[in-house]
Amino acid sequence: MKKLLFPLILLLLGAEASAQQDFFALTGKDTPSIIFNDFRAINTTSGISGETIFTADSSVKIFSQSRNGSVTEDKNSYNHAQSATMAALAYDSSGNNLIYMPMFSSNVYILNTKTKEITLVENNVTRVTSCDINSHITRMATGYDGNIYAINNAGTQFLQISKKNNQYSVVDLGIIKDDTSNGKNSFTTIETGFGGDMVADADNNFYVFSTSGNVFKIVKKELRAQFIGKISGLPENYSVNGSAVNSKGEVVIASAKGAPLYAVDLKTLAAKQLPGDLNLHIYDLASKYFANDKSVTANTGTHLEIYPTKVDEQFITVDGTDKSIKGNLTLNVFDMSGKNVMKYSLTAKDGALYQKIYLNNLVNGAYIVNITEDSGKILLNKKIIITK
């Protein structure tokens, strides 16, 4: 009996560790100014800090994509992987990578959370100067299409960071302008729209949470920022510096001032304090979740996920850690015409399911992944995009 229990315990512990390792914080030292301290995992349900992934003092191995080799950076400059001035972080679940940019630099860094190796992407697209606070990159998130997006303080650069054939490229999508309805709540001014962080939704729109607590919806196709309201329920002078979506679909916000974490309902913008008393100085948050994502099945109460959304390594991961997940399940993949192009059997044991599904025979394009119980009850529908 013990031989059977031991692997099961390891599986459950692994699932719990996985749940804790999909929400990350960029933290700073306890000082009035911005000084980078570390990247760490956070369990937002319990308010417990997890593994420290990378610190200001970590030894680093940096591979330059453009120079195709290892490099040693000048740590007296703003252009290095452990720069003190950092406030932009995103998580790419397809490669377990943290993507970040120093505020005063055009460099993009990709940190492998497993090996701790860093890829440096140097680009001449980003126009950042240390003396121009409007140019500093302070908001970053993974889009539903699998690309990474970043915006500077003034919205004059909307960057898309993409990976193809294991090479990263940076494109400037243009200038984000205020919606005509914004009035005095402008996205482009320091008092109302400055700094903060952003999250993406399942329609590949973005929500910027400014330092002041104002929230703007960014329509990517139109390069337009629409003011949708101000967060309520926060303490006076709470500075909103980090935001990311948790597994419940709530936006979690954090402050650089060492304040508690809050969950924000995106529909009402009402905030509620989360458990825990970490009071970390958080400059940015990152996760693999998206706002308004129906794939986290609130209708069934079952926590079941498929990731990544953008599939460039020929497989997806099915991950569930809920006691209501039982027995035999069926995974179907449909193309956009509704044709079933793949079928796969899954087995959940004691509420734990973690399985990689290879999609070798599917051509590039969009698909719907569907998971059902034996009874035919649908547990999850998820759109993925294959870009092999």
UniProtKB/TrEMBL annotation:
Q: Which domain of life is it from?
A: Bacteria
InterPro entries for the chain: Secre_tail (IPR026444), Vgb (IPR051344)
Domain Secretion system C-terminal sorting per the UniProt entry, residue ranges:
306-386
Which keywords accompany this UniProt record? Signal
The residues the entry assigns to the signal sequence are: 1-19
Which organism does this record belong to? Chryseobacterium paridis
Q: What is this protein called?
A: T9SS type A sorting domain-containing protein
